UniProtKB/TrEMBL annotation:
Coiled coil: none annotated. This is UDP-galactopyranose mutase. Residues 153-353 form the UDP-galactopyranose mutase C-terminal domain. It comes from the Bacteria. GO terms for cellular component: cytosol. One of its GO terms (molecular function) is UDP-galactopyranose mutase activity. Belongs to the UDP-galactopyranose/dTDP-fucopyranose mutase family. Pfam families: GLF (PF03275), NAD_binding_8 (PF13450). The keyword Manganese does not apply. Its cofactor is FAD. Its EC number is 5.4.99.9.
């Protein structure tokens, strides 16, 4: 078999690159994926009750990029959805990211008023400030506030999620959920926030539906590679796996996903409820709230973070810790040497904690430079 391009991985990165190569360059692409479905970790499907569930954790599309939004809109209609997350903290359901409403729930009245006043005198109305930055404030009230929020919202959640002391994490991790000096209870602030009508899987299938693209599922790329003649390779699997782990393994975090269907139409007060301090799971997702489906039953997802074991479970996140940087550098240097014939991209190929829109933006940019 002959193809111009072999794309390893049928996730958002692979699908975007394949689509761009097929339509803009008119070249043939073979997309292979070891799993028996497309869409990578954004894969969704209907469960036995007809409720659309995300098989690798909740995926809520959000972006400020008009380019990315317009691009994906060619392949799907959207169900407009503003994501809300509540944290179950000390018996209260508190909006996350922590905002002015949350502060009033987390602290007694006088204290919360003092904190809010201090914060609004120090920062701009509506500003989003990373918790680690607040903890370094020169103001002792702000420091005390931040220390309490850190302990109640971030410390145990991060320990569960990553299995390492939160101090080891890159500051950008907790900065994803900054303290928001507003009354807006939305989880994201992006201009575009939505879920594909029909799901991510259907959207990715539409992206791959092109005469120049062939898709092979349940196929190991090493095996295909030896049978297929191709000119260039796009690799969206783990970068260390590509190089046979020759410098050692880069760590990834995986999740045990446990689903439960209940014969009630509504289980919780928001699409996602986080449990920083209780239970072994980090959060509970109620899918009907994300998709807008109405049903007499509801399906929930409980996430139990675990270490990634190659061949045993799915890598969901690169580990965002400093210690990996030198090992990653060595793999990136190897990748650079073969960049004429092999392109690496995506969460696993770049070893970057990307959101979906960043994945698509990166793939579009890469495609435009080919
Ligand atoms: N985080 C936390 N408590 C929360 C929510 C988030 O400590 O209630 C921290 C935690 O380290 C988490 C990170 O912020 O891994 C990023 O959260 P996000 O919701 O963006 O995680 P994702 O949806 O990507 O798993």
């Amino acid at each position: 078999m002959k193809t111009e391009w072999l794309v390893v991985g049928a996730g958002l990165t692979g699908a975007t690159l394949a689509e761009q190569i097929a339509t803009r360059r008119g070249e043939s692409v073979l997309v292979v994926d070891q799993r028996n479905h497309v869409a990578g970790n954004a894969f969704d499907e209907e469960d036995e009750c007809g409720i659309t569930v995300h098989r690798y954790g909740p995926h809520i599309f959000h972006t400020n990029s008009r380019v990315v939004w317009d691009y994906l809109s060619k392949f799907t209609e959207w169900h407009s959805y503003r994501h809300h997350v509540l944290g179950s903290i000390d018996g209260e359901y508190v909006p996350l990211p922590v905002n002015l409403n949350s502060i009033e729930k987390l602290f007694p009245k006088q204290m919360s008023q003092r904190y809010i006043e201090k914060l609004l005198n120090t920062y701009c109305n509506g500003e989003r400030v990373p918790i680690l930055q607040l903890m370094e404030s020169s103001d002792s009230d702000i420091r005390a506030f931040a220390e309490s929020v850190y302990q109640r919202v971030f410390e145990q959640y991060s320990l569960k999620q990553w299995g390492v002391e939160p101090e080891q994490l890159l500051p950008s991790v907790t900065a994803r959920v900054p303290v928001s000096l507003s009354r807006d209870d939305g989880y994201f602030q992006d201009t575009y926030q939505a879920i594909p009508v029909g799901g991510y899987t259907a959207m990715v299938n539409n992206m791959l539906d092109h005469p120049n693209i062939e898709v092979m599922l349940g196929a190991e790329w090493e095996e295909i590679q030896s049978r297929v003649e191709y000119k260039r390779l796009v690799f969206t699997g783990s970068i260390d796996q590509y190089f046979g782990y020759k410098f050692g393994r880069l760590p990834y975090r995986s999740i045990d996903f446990k689903y439960q269907t209940l014969p009630i139409s509504r289980f919780q007060k928001a699409g996602v409820v986080n449990y920083p301090n209780d239970h072994d799971y980090t959060r509970v997702t109620e899918f009907t709230q994300l998709t807008g489906q109405s049903s007499t039953s509801t399906t929930l997802l409980y996430e139990y973070p675990v270490q990634h074991e190659p061949g045993m479970n799915t890598p969901c996140y690169p580990m965002p810790i400093r210690e990996n940087r030198s090992l990653l550098r060595r793999y990136k240097d190897e990748a650079e040497k073969i960049s004429e014939s092999v392109l690496f991209a995506g969460r696993l190929g770049d070893y970057m904690y990307y959101n979906m829109d960043q994945v698509v933006a990166r793939a579009l940019k890469l495609a435009s430079t080919l």
